[in-house]
Amino acid sequence: MGDVVIILPFLLPIAGAAVGMLLRRWHRLRAGWSLVVLALACAVTATVFWQVAQSGQARTFQMGGWPSPFGITIVADALSVTMALMSQVVFVFGFVYALGAKDKAVHYETFHPLFLMLAAGLTGGMLTGDIFNLFVMIELVVISGTVLTAISDDRFGTEAAYKYFLISLIASFTLLFGIGSLYVSYGTLNMADLAQRISANPEQPLLPIALILLSITFMIKSAAVPFHFWQPDFHTASPTPVSAMLSSVVVKLGVYGFMRLTTLLAPSATWIKDLLIVTGIVGVIFGGLGALGTHNVKRMFAYSTLAQVGFIYIGVGWGTSLSLAAAVLFTINHAIIKSAMLMLSGYLASRAPVKTASFSVVRGVGRYAPLSGVLFFLGGMALAGLPPSNGFISKWALFWSGVVAATSGAIQDRWTYWLPLGLVGISSVITLVYVFRALMRIWWEPFEPPSPEEKVKPRGDSLLAPAGLVTLCVLLGLLGQPLTDWTQRVSEWMTQPGKYVQAVLQAEETHRRNFSVQP
Fold first, then answer.
1. 311 touches 280 (CB < 8 A)
2. So what's the pLDDT on residue 515?
3. In this structure, is residue 362 part of a structural domain?
4. Which contiguous run of DSSP H or E holds residue 62?
5. Contact criterion met (CB below 8 Å) for 87 and 46
6. Cβ distance 403 to 283 under 8 Å?
7. Which of 266, 260, 125, 257 is nearest to 196 (CA)?
8. Are 122 and 249 in contact (CB under 8 A)?
9. Beta-carbon contacts of residue 87 (< 8 Å; ≥ 6 apart)
10. Which end of the chain is less congested by CB atoms within 10 angstroms, N or C?
């Protein structure tokens, strides 16, 4: 049956959420239980990650003892376990922030179980080797994220939740029809088996339709232009612990989908890579300009995510070994940076006279919170890609991968490299402008309340989680060589899809022999 331990990263949060519902009357006990479950799931994921890194081989498990094509395969390979560990580390920090948050929403009976289900859906989506099970996990993420946003203290939370649910409903339809098209064409939903059959028979008439539908789904999930319009409202209105997860790691589910699509399922579909490059360029421009013109700190970072995801798409679209490594590195570092910056935005809102991250309200509030200013400054450097932060390593890796490809002499359409390379530098300047403009307005300008009765609150949300994440940004910038080397190994694994197919199908063949099932 394989390695049972690799199902624990998403099975533990699901079981923990069920137990948490039984503890709904005891808030502290429920919160403590949920934190222990998340930490344990993260520790198990780290163990699986270490074993995969040491062996260099993928680990698999057949759910329910059913062989493929009837069963669901769980696969922990270099890419999936890296993405899962990244997500769970950020979720642990997010939950720690929730424990110290002043939002009323975090005290609702369903908040902690839903937070666990959000983590379970995201982790399960990364680890599944079955494309229909990916649909199930995405739905789990959608339902959890919608309800967590709807219970927000913000009066626009319900509206934002409706927007997210409706756009996600479109994504669900496109994903389901795409999966159906693949199943009708190839008779399997196992991604390894599907990759093998598509490679052997790429002329199926429904294949282009399926790839288009899957691309739309993943673009919606990652809030890529032109399917981005729900994201600023959604992340601005949702509770800070939730928005920090949604804008940093949940959007990476769409990025992960494109990584699998372009390297495993349809590596020969060059139009998808071209689409990612164009979408990435537009996202970098639109996201940066949107962040410049917004009126809210959280909304500013929501637009910033459009630009950062755009860079990741460009790396995936280039499709070289170096650019894929840079895309994975960018994905990890962005998750850490963005979650920290959104938590700091939430902290400022919690100290303001009225709980909001609007610039007109938080202007001057930072004068009463100097430590948060130091953290915001360091996080802003990382977001802009300045040394010695992890953001600098990400942008440099992406820039260098483009330079190597553009000067190799093997590429005809050099504009697909030089134009994004120019945007890397321009966007860094734009990021510096809106981050340091926010820094000046919040920590430098005087606090001027509309009325004398309004004062800065003496206490706000806890700074423990964002301080830990910003520290991690600095450490990964100073000591980032191991992470850089590992992302190169992940890239090498991604560019050799035959290894994934062989690892999964060999495990299934062994399972068939053990259970005397005829293939």
1. yes
2. 43
3. yes
4. strand 59-62
5. no
6. no
7. 266
8. yes
9. 119, 122, 123, 126, 249, 252, 335
10. C
CB atoms within 10 A of CB 5: 15
Structural tokens at position 312: 């990741």
**Is residue 184 a part of any domain in this protein?**
no
| Chain CA centroid to CA 314, Å | 16
Burial of 204 per CB tally in 10 Å (0-12, 13-18, 19+)? middle
CA-to-CA distance for 267 and 57, rounded, in angstroms?
21
Task: Return all residues near 126 (Cβ < 8 A) that are at least 6 apart.
Answer: 80, 81, 83, 84, 87, 253, 256
pTM score, whole prediction: 0.93
What end-to-end distance do the CA atoms of the chain give, in Å? 16
SS (H, E, C) 500-518: HHHHHHHHHHHHHHHCCCC
Q: Give the DSSP H or E segment for 60.
A: strand 59-62
Give the contacts of 348 (CB within 8 A, at least 6 positions apart): 297, 357, 362, 365, 366, 369, 372, 442, 460
How does pLDDT run across 176-188, given as a tens digit for each residue?
Answer: 999 999 999 999 9
* CA-to-CA dists, residue 431 to 276, 351, 428, 513, angstroms: 22, 25, 5, 57
Is residue 427 in some structural domain? yes
Split at pLDDT 50, 70, 90, the class of 1 is very low
| Whole-angstrom distance, CA of residue 418 vs CA of residue 291 | 24
Q: Which DSSP state fits 433?
A: H
Domain that holds residue 469: 269-478
User: How far from chain centre, in Å, is Cα 304?
Assistant: 14
Look at the block and give the residue holding tokens 């050799």.
Answer: 496
Taking CA atoms, 204 is separated from 192, 197, 274, in Å, by 18, 10, 22
Over pLDDT 70: what percentage of the chain?
Answer: 94
Q: What is the mean pLDDT of the chain?
A: 89
Number of domains in the chain: 1
Burial of residue 328 (CB within 10 Å: 0-12, 13-18, 19+) is: buried
- Phi, psi angle pair for 294, to nearest 5°: -85, 170
CA dihedral 385, 386, 389, 395 (to 10 degrees): 30
Contact 393, 441 (CB under 8 A): no
Q: Return the amino acid letter for 196.
A: Q
Which residue(s) pair with 61 in the sheet? 2, 74
Handedness of CA 80, 85, 91, 95 (dihedral sign): positive
CA 316/CA 325 separation, integer angstroms? 9
